[in-house]
Amino acid sequence: MPATRIATFNVNGVNGRLPVLLKWLNESACDIVCLQELKTSDEKFPVDAIRDAGYSAIWPGQKSYNGVAILARDAVPVERRRGLPGDPGDTHSRYLEAEVNGLIVGCLYLPNGNPAPGRKFDYKLRWFDRLIGYGRSLLQEDAPVVLCGDYNVVPTPIDAVVSRRWLGGAVYFPESRQAYARMLGDGWIDAVRRTHPEKGVYTYWNFSFRGGYDRSSGLRMDHLLISPPLSDQLRGAGVDADVRGWEKPSDQAPAWIEIE
């Protein structure tokens, strides 16, 4: 059987970046795609255009902010969970989970946390704690799971072109990196880093006032974590970095893995 390609892509506004998304979907032929930062209400999600591109979709939107979606080609994602447990008052659309052809896929958009320290950073750490706790329950299922999305954390210095530029940012704060390390300590496998153990791989670049983007600002903060049952089935991983240079792009590029 051919490998299954699973991708995560922070689109930074699904309607405004729809031409980029549709072009990439056509060229990448991914089987499962997780989107973050939809920035649209449920009813304005471009489901017809995505269906015409060959994908079924489920999504919880949120006007102007957040929003996540799971797309599947030649399959229908069966929703398992909408929102993380642990805080009934949290109304942000940041987590969605589905089963696709026997694979459990969690799509997440972790809070950025800036300005840090402060209230938003405290929320980020609380959300991270909830994710860690829920992630442990997923691991206990001993099932094939991919937990992917925009984690808004740069795990190590190799994950930034110039790490010192980000010392004051929430994505690089020690607490953020320690929380990510706790997930790996629980048994989650960073599939991109497993595939490229010593290579600088980046998924985010600042917008440039002169047009294009600032390549020296590269960060890796979009991650695909896989559960131990998938460890021996990982066949490849990478980033479609060229998408960042397309017309009217997101500030992030799709990251992907291939599972046997």
TrEMBL record:
Domain of life: Bacteria
Its EC number(s): 3.1.11.2
Cofactor needs: Mg(2+)
Gene3D superfamilies: Endonuclease/exonuclease/phosphatase
PROSITE patterns given in the database record: AP_NUCLEASE_F1_4
Gene Ontology MF terms in the entry: double-stranded DNA 3'-5' DNA exonuclease activity
InterPro entries in the record: AP_endonuc_1, Endo/exonu/phosph_ase_sf, Endo/exonuclease/phosphatase, ExoIII-like
Pfam families membership: Exo_endo_phos
CDD domains, per the entry: ExoIII-like_AP-endo (cd09086)
Keyword flag Metal-binding: yes
Transmembrane region(s): none
All residue ranges annotated as the Endonuclease/exonuclease/phosphatase domain in the record: 7-251
Family annotation (SUPFAM superfamilies): DNase I-like (SSF56219)
Enzyme class: hydrolase
Presence of the UniProt keyword ATP-binding in the record: no
Residues forming coiled coils: none
Keywords attached to this entry: Hydrolase, Magnesium, Metal-binding
Family: Belongs to the DNA repair enzymes AP/ExoA family.
PANTHER family from the UniProt entry: EXODEOXYRIBONUCLEASE III
Protein name: Exodeoxyribonuclease III
Species: Aquamicrobium soli
